[in-house]
Amino acid sequence: MNMHTVVVGTSGAVADDVIAVARGEARVELSGEALEALAASRKVVDALAAKPEPVYGVSTGFGALAVRHIGPELRAQLQRNIVRSHAAGMGPGVEREVVRALMFLRLKTVASGRTGVRPEVARTMAAVLNAGITPVVHEYGSLGCSGDLAPLSHCALTLLGEGDAQGPDGVVRPAGELLAQHGIEPVVLREKEGLALLNGTDGMLGMLVMACADLARLLTSADITAALSLEALLGTDRVLAPELHAIRPHPGQAASADNMLRVLAGSGLTGHHQDEAPRVQDAYSVRCAPQVAGAGRDTLAHARLVAERELAAAVDNPVVLPDGRVESNGNFHGAPVAYVLDFLSVVTADLASIAERRTDRLLDKNRSHGLPPFLAGDPGVDSGLMIAQYTQAALVGEMKRLAVPASVDSIPSSAMQEDHVSMGWSAARKLRTSVDSLCRVIAVELVAAARGIELRHGLTPAPASRAVLEAVRAAGVEGPGGDRFLAPDLAAAEAFVRSGRLVAAAESVTGPLA
Fold it and tell me: Which positions does the record annotate as the modified residue 2,3-didehydroalanine (Ser) (predicted)?
């Protein structure tokens, strides 16, 4: 049992907390400060509910229907109805970790005391997370504005004991049954609470936080495989010298160049390009690897800054301000998050593109500087890694299509009341696909570069490279030789990269890499 606990207070959350809850099954606990803030803001909402003047979300309809004043006798039904009607998602269910991140981030905003939700509703949200109950949330239904509405509505529906959810055993059952099994009472919503549970950027933000963590590891992985490819191609490491990168002071570029230089330290393969067929300089895909990966690192740093700001935010409409005012606002608009999600899709596509170019160079006898065609055992009889590069190219092709931004594709909704939306949820969904594909692309480069190094008979790779080769072979990826069923090798390489073992193998020699 995971005994790690994340305490939810009034000051937001940090990325590590999101990942601990979403992926690590960490328990959540509301702080005393949060419970006090919840109670205080609820008093404000109760006072407004008692007044005859209409207040959006408290005593009115929603969106384009906000012109209707709702009397006290219909307000519980109003809040219940917004959850039911907005739980209108379609398509396949999204991943459990995404739903847990979304639920945790909505609880984080509720706990800020800016939403007017009662403490008992927040306690129920925490209890559902801690019980391992995961609402069924569908792929389609969010425009990334006015909150990730349909996804959050499906989560809120579970709090009411309605709809479907996945139990800790992975079986989908009626939510009411799961709540009863874990001794959780369904909530009965009061004024503003239904709206407050739906109105945030939590889904797209959760996916951004997880993508940032995954990309950080993959950027380091890409530096390692680029270094291995440079070795296999008998390239020069002189282009990685720190003084060259100091005169173009992008911090990510310097970090990637330093990673590559440390992996290549002590190599007996680098610099041999002058021995027989003189090359003045290596091809761009080899020589400019730090510039491309470094630009990705700097973009990731910006995305993390946006995520940190959003994690500190309390996104709701209307919002309870510290001075007791309840004001409508537009903070639910997902543009800040959507933009960086789209930007990271560009990063992943381009990082994959340059990795694929290095792989293709390794397989082409006219450009590989003495390696056999397609790194095959007996070229002609054997095809070697020919089709592995096809698979890699297919992945890169899709990633380029996924790099088309979603955030410029606003489609008006709610009878033109919500006439400009962010499409941030869509940007997040395609980024998740692209990050998965990048892992596979790096895995194919790893397989090719490792084979290329091993085919350089009589030359000794760097100690860090040898550590990677030994680890990847121990992971079930076979070395040079005749043709065999290749898909299992590629799957093993993918798992090796995804698990972080590639980085760990290199760092066993280099120490921590950036």
Answer: 146
